[in-house]
Design the sequence.
């Protein structure tokens, strides 16, 4: 249509503008409109969601406690090379700032020092109480003055901890979240075994997510297949059995499992009555309870994507395979199952991604050794108020989730994410 | 899926076993949800069958408790406002996403979807830290804001799904007949995508209604929501009142599910007419 016969003879619209320019202008207008429509939500999410997460994650590389509590001390300790004892002037500044620091800043700084050596907090407090004694001393007598207050000041390790907490930007918390630390030579080494818990927690998070995904797949495959092959009228009815749990609150379903699994719960009662076992079994506050409740909650997320793909597979393929002599299982594995792969990939990845972040269910039906990374993030944000470590654990969990989401996007596609 | 005549004995046994396995999985999905409903009508505060008698006392206790009622009221307020915000912003964004191709579109879509993917504990902790600076912690406004952000992806997804089969010639036809963009939107586009918008709104509502982790971080003791109150209840003592609340929440879910099914069937029917 838009054929130009010559430069002087272009197709023009009613107002005399060449059609090509007019089209391009209309196309540009459409793009501007499209972006204008997306912009409000984008900004809303940036303020309400992206900025909060970025500001949380940035806490993992910040170590403000000492730099804000004892700013001049922090500056001087940073210049010290870490060999032996710090220069007397740095110690004197520390003594001065101990005496004048406000209560809040002092408490946070003392708590920060306590992370590395327990007992450091009370030692700093004691020293602060007696800081007038130090104010009278000359720089040469400073170290002896400190040692007189507490003999542990004679151990260079304590001074080194102060130095290590003296820079505002740090990899301290990120290393801690992987059970690592820097030694005297600033080399990265493992922390002592009694403090090393977070790698175990991370591996446990992956292990639980993997097991839940596998169980969901094994339980979901038969019912997705059944739903896809039954007549629509019956499968629509049965689908309600999958959709009801999907729509029911996670907290309600977890509560149900507590009622069912606890020692005086319905399952123990029934089993005792039937004589299956003679005394109440521990079904809750352990890994078993976590698996049962999480599989129940996540199973619909596995079944629905598999079902929607299976529904599109022509059932005659199975008949054709059978007529060519394939036994039922072989026809299923070689002909049917490969065609389900998009649904299987979507379901397994979705369940795995969702499992990684579970908190409520393990907290209610799991024992102390079944808690996942999310639980430790909450613990560090709340009870112990160790925001740096909580943020560092969030970085680890988020990276793991984003890697899985990237794989999901690559193989399934975000635009294929369906909710009903 | 009837058995064909050439089925072997093994096929027949497998067929029966397969059906039994499926029944067990369906029972596993369904029984835990219905089992607590009768317990909420138990006359005694125990969670065992057979029940000694029928009673509405736990429901009476719920409606007599200012604590529970405050939670209910807050959940409704937060749910409605979060749904409104999420639906309006999500629908506009979905229209924009499907209107034209432009660079970075997948990235934008990934950002819009990200609230579903990011572990909820990280979202909640980030909001707790950041909203505190804005003075939004412990307020209903903060909860509305937070719940709207996590409800929005569902609206974007459902409306986008409806728009996938949308005929843009209808908009052009409307414009060529002299309708200004607003009029075309309200008279042509909106009625056609309405099932998707309503489905998205229902998802956004149920997301807010059931949301707990953000409420743990953001809500104060005065401004708690129903799930937040239930959470502290479960951790202290699993009382039958919680069974009554759970039953009411299940009923809400059933109601929403029915509306959703009707919407889905309606849109399937409509799609059946216009190929």
Sequence:
């Amino acid at each position: 249509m838009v054929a130009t016969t010559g430069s002087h003879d272009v197709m023009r619209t009613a107002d005399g503008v060449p059609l090509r320019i007019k089209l391009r202008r209309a196309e540009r207008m459409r793009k501007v409109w499209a972006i204008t429509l997306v912009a409000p939500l984008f900004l809303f999410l940036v303020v309400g969601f992206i900025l909060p997460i970025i500001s949380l994650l940035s806490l993992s590389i910040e170590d403000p406690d000492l730099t804000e509590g004892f700013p001049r001390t922090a500056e001087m300790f940073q210049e010290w090379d870490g060999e032996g004892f710090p220069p007397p002037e740095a110690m004197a500044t520390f003594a001065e700032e101990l005496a004048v620091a406000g209560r809040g800043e002092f408490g946070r700084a003392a708590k920060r020092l306590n992370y590395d050596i327990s007992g450091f907090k009370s030692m700093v407090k004691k020293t602060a109480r007696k800081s007038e004694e130090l104010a009278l001393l000359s720089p040469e007598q400073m170290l002896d003055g400190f040692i007189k207050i507490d003999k542990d000041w004679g151990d260079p390790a304590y001074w080194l901890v102060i130095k290590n907490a003296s820079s505002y930007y740090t990899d301290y918390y990120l290393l801690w979240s992987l059970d690592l630390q820097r030694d005297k030579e600033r080399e990265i080494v493992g922390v002592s075994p009694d403090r090393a818990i977070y790698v175990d927690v991370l591996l446990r998070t992956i292990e639980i997510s993997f097991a839940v995904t596998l169980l969901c797949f094994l339980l979901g495959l038969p019912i997705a297949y059944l739903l896809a092959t039954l007549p629509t009228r019956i499968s629509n009815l049965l689908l309600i059995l999958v959709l009801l749990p999907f729509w029911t609150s996670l907290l309600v379903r977890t509560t149900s499992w507590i009622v069912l699994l606890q020692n005086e719960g319905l399952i123990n009662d029934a089993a005792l009555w039937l004589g299956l076992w003679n005394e109440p079994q521990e079904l809750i506050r352990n890994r078993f309870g976590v698996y049962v409740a999480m599989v129940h909650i996540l199973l619909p997320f596995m079944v629905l994507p598999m079902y929607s793909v299976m529904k599109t597979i022509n059932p005659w393929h199975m008949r054709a395979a059978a007529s060519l002599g394939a036994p039922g299982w072989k026809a299923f594995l070689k002909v049917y199952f490969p065609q389900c792969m998009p649904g299987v990939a979507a379901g397994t990845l979705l369940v795995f991604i969702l499992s990684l972040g579970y908190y409520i269910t393990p907290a209610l039906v799991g024992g102390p050794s079944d808690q996942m990374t999310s639980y430790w993030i909450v613990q560090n944000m709340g009870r112990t108020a160790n925001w740096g470590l909580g943020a560092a654990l969030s970085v680890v969990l988020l990276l793991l989730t984003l890697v899985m989401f990237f794989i999901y996007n690559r193989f399934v596609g975000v635009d294929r994410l369906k909710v009903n | 899926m009837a058995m064909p005549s050439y089925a072997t004995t093994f096929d027949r046994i497998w067929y029966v076993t397969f059906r039994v396995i499926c029944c067990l999985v369906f029972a596993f999905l369904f029984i835990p949800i219905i089992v607590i409903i009768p317990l909420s009508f138990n006359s005694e505060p125990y969670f065992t069958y057979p029940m000694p008698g029928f009673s509405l006392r736990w429901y009476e206790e719920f409606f007599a408790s200012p604590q529970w009622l405050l939670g209910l009221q807050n959940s409704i307020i937060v749910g409605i406002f979060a749904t409104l915000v999420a639906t309006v912003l999500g629908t506009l964004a979905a229209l924009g996403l499907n209107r034209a191709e432009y660079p970075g579109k997948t990235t934008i879509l990934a950002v819009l979807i990200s609230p579903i993917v990011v572990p909820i504990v990280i979202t909640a902790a980030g909001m707790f830290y950041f909203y505190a600076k804005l003075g939004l912690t412990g307020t209903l406004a903060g909860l509305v804001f937070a719940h709207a952000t996590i409800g929005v992806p569902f609206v974007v997804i459902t409306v986008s799904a409806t728009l996938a089969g949308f005929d843009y010639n209808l908009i052009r036809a409307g414009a060529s007949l002299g309708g200004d963009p607003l009029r075309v939107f309200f008279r042509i586009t909106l009625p056609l995508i309405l099932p998707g918008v309503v489905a998205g709104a229902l998802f956004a509502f149920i997301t807010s209604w059931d949301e707990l982790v953000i409420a743990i971080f953001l809500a104060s003791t005065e401004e708690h929501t129903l799930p937040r109150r239930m959470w502290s209840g479960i951790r202290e003592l699993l009382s039958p009142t919680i069974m009554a609340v759970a039953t009411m929440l299940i009923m809400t879910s059933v109601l929403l599910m029915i509306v959703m099914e009707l919407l889905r069937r309606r849109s399937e029917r409509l799609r059946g007419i216009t190929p």
About this structure: Chain A touches chain B through 89 residues (CB under 8 Å). Residues 1-6 of chain A have pLDDT under 50 and may be disordered. Residues 122 and 139 of chain A are 24 Å apart (CA to CA).
